[in-house]
Every structure is written in structure tokens, then in C-alpha cells.
Design a protein that fits this description.
The complex is a heterodimer.
Chain A lengths: L1 E2 L2 E2 L13 E5 L6 H8 L10 E3 L2 E3 L3 H7 L1 E3 L12 H8 L8 H6 L2 H21 L14 H13 L5 E5 L7 H16 L3 E5 L3 H7 L2 E6 L2 E6 L1 H6 L1 H8 L8 H15 L1
Parallel strand pairs in A: 3-8, 3-9, 6-7, 7-8
Antiparallel strand pairs in A: 1-2, 4-5, 9-10
Chain B lengths: L27 H18 L23 H20 L14 H25 L7 H19 L8 H8 L14 H24 L3 H20 L2 H11 L1 H14 L7 H26 L8 H13 L15 H23 L5 H20 L22 E2 L2 E2 L4 E3 L2 E3 L1 H24 L2 H11 L1 H6 L4 H26 L18 H11 L5 H16 L7 H15 L8 H7 L25
Antiparallel strand pairs in B: 1-2, 3-4
Classes of the chains: A alpha/beta, B mainly alpha.
The structure holds adenosine-5'-diphosphate and magnesium ion (MG).
């Protein structure tokens, strides 16, 4: 994927198997989000393809979602002025069929489908613990709950692969812990999870496999131990930081967390 | 390190005032007495003669009976007295003031003052000097000032400045005590009464014969509604409506049907039918703008397509196909279908654009339609629309042997030509309201709102943005086309000119958009109310003439400044514009990542 002269992501080859949680880490600007955007069709890759369960996906977001890949966003992108329940119902879009005509005619099929959709959405809200706030506007939820709601909305499309972009950003330790539990629960539903995260403890607790992306290229991929021991990763994170490098902070953070973990 | 944004509110009430007193230093009993007695005196003064000559519109020269604008003074005075009684806690009137706040008293007093002084000044200005005032005028002027003095003598916690205090006087309180449960049949009774009252007010507004009385009507109406709003009564009524949705719709429908029966002059039914046509098209536009968030600046073209289609197949001798005369149902379908095709033709290339581009392209296409029909006269283009002369003498509709062109007697009431069309338009509007409500509350409606909220997220949730936007566009277009088929018959002829972007009178795209925005985007009643207002203003205030557009501009700016969600607030938009103490919601405008919250030390 290139933006003008900048190659944001280059020949990243990646496989996620079902029932697996895979972590994607890397310093800021490494191209992690861009990688997600390519996967979900929001960016059309300059070269390369995305295949899911053996079929190549066209770079159209709605077709990708239909095929079974759902995502959350690093900067929360809920439908701010819709209620919590409506947000999840929008997530059901690809799994329901009712068009304009059935909405206008309101036949029994329409009512049944709406009921079923609502029931499924409520199940998901129970699952993330927001059922009691079904009629609140999404924008009025606290930060942590907005992140959870985004996950519920993504789950509503019944994905086989869930992409989480920094699901714990801005959360306190308790919330992070709760999110960890949530991700495990999602894995246990048989959904493959690919998660971008800066919190190393979160990543190494959670993931069966971790890949490191640096400057658009995959540096290492393997189990937590392999990645943590890899010199190149440490170098990439501690790097040769230049003045005012935004990655600097993170590199330190990663370094110290890693130190603790060992 | 978690990111925390503290709410940006300054420390609340830095100066808690201990003694609350009025802006005008009077004891509370005196203030209330002024309100009550002043209200009664104002109402009573309407029975006096205010001028000696009947040159002033509406006969204000009679002792013992109010005329014209005096009726409005009378109503405002009675309202003030009622609220004053309620503030005394009189049994049976307490429900008027559930929060026992000052605002309704202040506002009704101001309404009475406004309409009375407006009348007095108009008399002096129109007839040339104060000499034209009768003693009654002086009494009215003084009497209507008394409640205002009383109102501002009511105790009110002082703000930091006089401006703040004045604002507090007319503010709606934060907490209004919850109403006691009301039996369902009483709720329905109240809704029925309000529907009848609404019909009465609407009919009165339409029947006003000259600009002065219409302005007086607006003054009283605005202050009365505002007072009811600050008293919390409108909220209570909305809650009641929410519990009795279908009943309210049925009552509204009945009230709409009953309107021609209140009219003796078919001219007012003509205004009514034009308001309905305008309102129906505004409601169709509301699907496109209010639900799907697509700014369409050429929407009136779809009304034009419907009208021209109906005219062409109406059997008019000036139509290109003068031999062809479709029955109405077929003409209506043809008009809607032609608009739909036109909508898809315009939508397919433009809906891939976002935001401002779409607005510009639709503006262009709207004008292209008008220019095209202007030129398809057989000289500059193919001979289809008869050019600038349009298609005149469109015959009246006949439906099941019912001739819309003739007056019919109905149990003592005469239903004239325009009343016939009015009733037909009520049915069309009922259909459009149903379509709007059903579409909005469904999978497709949710995807429209999702697209409006955040198109990127919506597509990532599996919504085919282009497809659902095209459906919204096409649906809106065909509803406007349907309204156009009726409008062609109502006006006898179709010409290219009304179907322009902006003009001094509705319908044109700018007015339609204004009706939607002013009334309240994303609501059903908002655009209809906005359309009624925007149709009546130029119709009634003829003296504004060419300045009416300027007046609209000013009114729109003021409204957007003080009530950006429109007159009727959508639940969502109300929260959107008047939020306080919001929790931190990150900006969701860009896809690229800002340096995100780092979890160093977490
Ligand atoms: N739409 C875009 N246009 C141009 N450059 C972009 C765009 N999106 C991302 N980039 C650039 O691509 C690089 C990778 O960004 P991103 O994928 O957001 O990194 P991260 O790993 O922090 O999520 C950055 O240098 C960023 O500036
Ligand atoms: Mg990122």
C-alpha cells in the first residue's frame, strides 16, 4: 500500500486461523491501521490481495464485511446519534435481507426478521454488559463502554474474523482486564481475532501468536517468547530515536513492560 | 496514563444568591396581583374601541365586541390571567404550571404586551398619528404593560449580569416534576382537544385577511407556544403522544380532513392544498436530507417531473400527447415513475460523491431540468413541453365519477374545487407520512441514518453506501413526483418557472430545504409545519414583497443561532446540539491515526 511516495505497508504476508488470537504490534506509524484498512477494503491496496477462507476478497468494505471480516476502529467510530441498540442493529445489516418494499408493506416476514434481529442484538448487548443502556445514545456512553459497543456492533455481523484496532486505548487497568476477558470469550465463540495493541502485557497475555510490523514490513512472527527474545524487535522499538520521534515514548513503554515480563 | 478530559464547564454558580428578588422591586403578592389583574384588564380592553375609523383593517371601532387584532389581545390577556391564577395555586389550574416557574408568566405577559402595542403602533402609523387612538387604545396600552411589570417583579435568582437574569426569567427549568399518571381515556381526550385546537389555530392563521393580523397571530402563537414549552407542558404532551401514536395520527388525519369544513371560501382551501403539496414534497426531501444526510439542492425538479408527466398525459389539448388521457391512478404512477427514473439518472453518477460535491451537482441538475423544459418547445429542442408557455388548461380530475372541478354538497357543507383537491392531497400526504415512518424505522432507515452519521463506519458495517443512498434518493424523488401529479391539476397548468433553485415564493429548492431545516430535520411534523409557515409568510405578508427573501434569511439565521435543531426537535438532534457535560467522545473525522493515547506506564 503506497500513499504517494510513502510505502505504508509492504509485502506483509499474514495468516490467521480460526480459534486463534493473533497480535499485531509495532511502533506508531508502522502501518498497522493501514494494514487493517487494506484488509477491510477501506483502502484499495496498490498491490496484493486479501483472501478469506480461500477466496480473494474484492476491496469493497461492505463485501468484506459480508464475507465475514468485521472490525473496530482505533478512533471510535460509532453512530454517535443512534441508540446503543440501533448501533448493534446496523451491524446486523449484512445478515438481514429486508429491503425498502418489505419495510413499507410490513408483512409478517418483516416483523419476524426485525424481532429476530433485535433479539440477537440484545444477546450481544447482554454479552458485553450494556443491555441496560439499550436506549441511550451512543455518544453519551463513557469511553470504555463505547469501545465495547463497537465490538458488539462488529460481532453483530457474525464475523469469522474480528479485527480490533487498539481496543484498550484510553482504558484504565480494570477496563483493560475486562476487555481481555471479552476477547477470550469472543475467541471461545470460534471467532479468529487479530488485535492491534500497544499494551504489551495485554498482547502477551492474550495472543497465541504475535507479529511485529515496523515501517510497513513484517519483522517477526511467532509466539510471545520468540517475539520478545528477538533482537530486531528490541532494536526496532528502541531504535535510533531521533528528536521528537513520536515512537520514542512507546518504545520506552514497550521496553519497560518487556523488561517486567521477563 | 489514561487520557482524561475534564468537562469544560466552569465551576457552577460561583455566586449563590441568598435572597431571590425580582428585577423590579415589588413584593410577591403585588407582583402576582399585577399579573392577574393586568391580564384581566388586557382581555377586557379588547372590548373597547381602539380607533374611530374602520379604515384600519378589522373593525376596531366597536364598543362591546372585539374585532380583528383585538381578539388576539383578548386571547393573550386570558392566557396571562390563567397562568397567574395557576401561580396562585388555584385548584384545577395547577397543572398549567407544574414546575411553578416564572417563564410562562413572563412569556404570556410579553405576548399580550407585544400584540397590543403592535396594534396600537400600527394604528398610529397607518392612520397617521396618535390622534387616531381612542381612550380604549390608551387603556389597552397601559393594561398590557401591567402584567409585564408584574412578571419582572416575580422573585428570580439573580444571574451575574442583568442579561443573565433576564435569560433566567424565560428559561425552562432543568427539572420539571413528573406528571401523575393519567388514565388512557383522558390522554386520548386531551389529544383530541389539542387536535381540535390545532385545527382551529391553523384555520384562523390561514383565514387572516391582512398582514397585520397575521403578524399579531404569529406574535401570540409564538409566545403562547413558548410559554407552554417553558412550563413543561409540551414535553408532557409529547410523552402522551408517544404513548398514543396511532391515535394521535388518526386524530391529526381527522383534523386535516375537517379543515375544509371550517372554510367558507374556497380560496383558503387553495392555500391549504398548496401547503399540503409543499409539505408533502418537503417530507420527501426529509428522507434524502434528514435521514440519509444527502444535501440535495435541486429537489424541486422532481416535483416538476411529476407535474409535467401528469400534464402530458392529462388530455390537455396543449399537451404533446393531447389524445392521451390517463386515469388519475395511472397518471400518478407515471409521474412517480418518471421522477424515480430521473432520480436514478441523477443519483447514479452523483451519489458516489460526498458532501459538498453532491450539493453542487444536484443544484446543477435541478437547473438543467428547468432549462430543458424551457427549451423543449420545438424550436430550440424537441417539441415536448411547449417551452416557456408550459402546458395550460389541464382538465380536472375525475375519480370514480367524482369530478374534482365541481363543488359538492356534503351534509350542509359545500366542498369546492380546491377543497376536493385538498382532501385528495390529505390522502397523498397520509401515504407519504406512512412511507416515511415505515422506511425510517427499518433496516433500510437505520442504514440511511448510519450513512449520515459516519459513512466510513457504515460501509465497514456492511452497508453498501451507494445502493442505500440511491434508494433514498429514488424514494424521495418518486414521492415528490407523486405530489407533482396532483399539483399539475390543482394549478390548471404547468410552466417551467416555479421549478427553480431559489425564488420569492414556494415551491423552489431553497424553500423546500428551508422548510425541512426550519421545521426540524428527521421528524415528520417538522417539515410539514415548516412548509406551512414558509408558504403562509409570503402569502400573508404581501407588503414585504421583494424584501421577503431578506426577511427569511434573517429569520433563518436567527433560528439556526438559537434553535439549530429546528422548531420540532428530533430526539437525536436535540441531544446533538444542546449537550452539556458530555463525556469525552473523540473526534471521528479522519481515518489516519493521530498519535494515539499511549499506554506508557499502564
Ligand atoms: N490516508 C493516508 N494518506 C497518506 N498517508 C497515510 C494515510 N493513512 C496512513 N498514512 C501513513 O501511513 C503510515 C502508517 O500509518 P498507520 O497505519 O496509521 O500506523 P499505525 O501502525 O500507527 O496504525 C503513517 O506514516 C501514516 O502517516
Ligand atoms: Mg493505528
Amino acid at each position: 500500500m503506497r500513499f504517494g511516495g510513502l510505502t505504508a505497508v509492504r509485502s506483509v504476508d499474514f495468516t490467521v486461523n480460526s480459534g486463534e488470537i493473533v497480535g499485531l504490534i509495532g511502533p506508531n506509524g508502522a502501518g498497522k491501521t493501514t494494514f487493517f484498512n487494506c484488509l477491510t477494503g477501506l483502502y484499495v491496496p496498490t498491490e496484493g490481495t486479501v483472501s478469506y477462507q480461500g477466496t480473494v476478497l474484492p476491496p469493497k468494505p461492505h463485501l468484506v464485511t459480508k464475507a465475514g471480516i468485521a472490525r473496530t476502529f482505533q478512533n471510535i467510530r460509532l453512530f454517535a446519534n443512534m441508540t446503543v441498540l440501533e448501533n448493534v442493529l446496523v451491524g446486523r445489516h449484512t445478515r438481514t435481507r429486508e429491503g425498502l418494499w418489505s419495510a413499507l408493506l410490513r408483512g409478517p416476514g418483516f416483523k419476524k426478521a426485525e424481532k429476530a434481529s433485535e433479539a440477537r442484538a440484545m444477546e450481544l448487548l447482554e454479552f458485553i454488559g450494556l443491555a441496560h443502556k439499550r436506549d441511550h445514545l451512543a455518544r453519551n456512553l463513557p469511553y470504555g463502554e463505547q469501545r465495547k459497543l463497537e465490538i458488539a456492533r462488529a460481532l453483530a455481523s457474525e464475523p469469522g474474523l474480528l479485527l480490533l484496532d487498539e481496543p484498550t486505548a484510553g482504558m484504565n487497568p480494570q477496563e483493560t482486564r475486562a476487555t481481555e476477558e471479552l476477547v477470550f470469550a469472543i475467541r471461545d465463540m470460534g471467532i479468529a481475532v487479530l488485535v492491534i495493541e500497544h499494551d504489551m502485557r495485554f498482547i502477551f497475555n492474550l495472543c497465541d501468536r504475535v507479529a511485529v510490523l515496523v515501517q510497513g514490513e513484517k519483522l517477526v512472527e511467532g509466539t510471545s517468547e520468540v517475539v520478545q527474545a528477538d533482537d530486531r524487535v528490541i532494536a526496532a522499538y528502541l531504535g535510533e530515536p531521533f528528536e521528537g520521534d513520536p515512537a520514542q515514548n512507546e518504545a520506552k513503554a514497550a521496553g519497560t513492560t518487556k523488561g517486567e515480563a521477563q | 496514563m489514561t487520557e482524561t478530559k475534564s468537562p469544560a464547564t466552569p465551576p457552577a454558580d460561583a455566586t449563590p444568591t441568598t435572597a431571590t428578588r425580582g428585577l423590579i422591586g415589588l413584593p410577591l403578592p403585588a407582583a402576582r396581583a399585577l399579573l392577574l389583574l393586568g391580564g384581566i384588564a388586557t382581555a377586557a380592553s379588547a372590548f373597547l374601541a381602539w380607533t374611530w375609523t374602520s379604515d384600519f383593517p378589522g373593525d376596531l371601532t366597536v364598543y362591546g365586541y372585539p374585532g380583528g387584532l383585538q381578539w388576539l389581545t383578548f386571547v393573550a390577556g386570558v392566557l396571562t390571567a390563567l397562568f397567574a391564577l395557576a401561580s396562585y395555586g388555584v385548584r384545577g389550574l395547577r397543572w398549567l404550571l407544574p414546575a411553578r416557574n416564572n417563564a410562562p408568566l413572563v412569556l404570556t405577559a410579553l405576548g399580550g404586551f407585544g400584540v397590543t402595542w403592535f396594534t396600537a403602533i400600527e394604528i398610529a402609523a397607518k392612520l397617521g398619528g396618535l390622534a387616531n387612538w381612542e381612550p380604549g387604545t390608551y387603556i389597552a396600552v397601559v393594561a398590557s404593560l401591567i402584567p409585564v411589570i408584574g412578571a419582572f417583579a416575580l422573585p428570580q435568582e439573580a444571574g451575574e449580569s442583568t442579561k443573565e437574569t433576564l435569560k433566567a426569567y424565560i428559561a425552562k427549568p432543568e427539572a420539571i416534576p413528573a406528571p401523575q399518571p393519567i388514565a388512557p381515556w383522558i390522554q386520548r381526550l386531551i389529544i383530541t382537544i389539542v387536535a381540535a385546537l390545532g385545527l382551529g389555530v391553523f384555520a384562523y392563521g390561514i383565514d387572516t385577511q391582512y398582514g397585520e393580523i397575521f403578524i399579531g397571530f404569529l406574535i401570540v402563537l409564538v409566545f403562547a407556544v413558548w410559554a407552554l414549552h417553558t412550563a413543561g407542558l409540551l414535553d408532557r404532551f409529547s410523552a402522551m403522544v408517544a404513548d398514543n401514536r396511532s391515535f394521535t395520527l388518526a386524530m391529526g388525519f381527522l383534523a386535516a380532513i375537517a379543515f375544509p369544513l371550517t372554510q367558507t371560501d374556497d380560496h383558503y382551501a387553495n392555500i391549504g392544498v398548496n401547503i399540503l403539496i409543499f409539505g408533502t414534497v418537503a417530507l420527501g426531501l426529509n428522507i434524502v436530507v434528514g435521514l440519509a444526510g444527502l444535501l440535495d439542492l435541486g429537489y424541486v425538479a422532481f416535483l416538476g417531473v411529476g407535474a409535467y408527466t401528469a400534464a402530458l398525459v392529462s388530455g390537455s389539448e396543449f399537451s404533446r400527447f393531447s389524445g392521451v388521457q390517463f386515469p388519475f391512478w395511472a397518471a400518478a404512477l407515471a409521474g412517480a415513475a418518471a421522477s424515480l427514473i430521473f432520480g436514478v439518472l441523477i443519483g447514479a453518477p452523483t451519489l458516489r460523491l460526498r458532501g459538498d460535491y453532491l450539493a453542487i451537482v444536484t443544484l446543477g441538475f435541478g437547473e438543467i431540468f428547468r432549462l430543458a423544459v424551457n427549451n423543449m418547445d420545438g424550436v430550440s429542442g424537441p417539441d415536448i413541453t411547449n417551452g416557456p408557455n408550459g402546458i395550460p388548461s389541464i382538465p380536472d380530475l375525475k375519480l370514480f365519477g367524482f369530478n374534482f372541478g365541481e363543488a359538492h354538497d356534503l351534509g350542509g357543507f359545500t366542498i369546492g374545487r380546491f377543497a376536493n383537491y385538498y382532501l385528495l392531497m390529505v390522502l397523498v400526504m397520509a401515504l407519504v407520512v406512512t412511507v416515511y415512518r415505515r422506511a425510517a424505522d427499518s433496516r433500510i432507515g437505520r442504514s440511511w441514518i448510519a450513512i449520515r452519521e459516519d459513512e466510513t463506519a457504515a460501509t465497514a458495517m456492511g452497508i453498501n453506501g451507494f445502493r442505500v443512498k440511491l434508494i433514498a434518493f429514488a424514494l424521495g424523488a418518486s414521492l415528490a413526483g407523486l405530489a407533482g401529479t396532483v399539483s399539475a391539476h390543482v394549478t390548471y397548468n404547468v410552466v417551467p418557472n416555479p421549478y427553480q433553485f431559489a425564488g420569492a415564493a414556494p415551491p423552489n429548492s431553497a424553500f423546500l430545504l428551508a422548510a425541512v431545516v426550519l421545521g426540524g430535520m428527521g421528524t415528520v411534523s417538522g417539515p410539514i409545519l415548516g412548509a406551512a409557515l414558509l408558504y403562509l409568510l409570503p402569502e400573508k405578508l404581501v407588503f414585504l414583497q421583494d424584501k421577503s427573501l431578506l426577511a427569511f434569511g434573517i429569520a433563518l439565521i436567527l433560528l439556526m443561532r438559537f434553535r439549530p435543531e429546528g422548531i420540532i426537535a428530533n430526539r437525536r438532534r436535540q441531544l446533538e446540539f444542546h449537550e452539556t457535560g458530555q463525556l469525552d467522545v473523540p473526534e471521528t473525522t479522519t481515518l489516519s491515526d493521530e498519535p494515539a493515547v499511549t499506554k506508557a506506564g499502564a
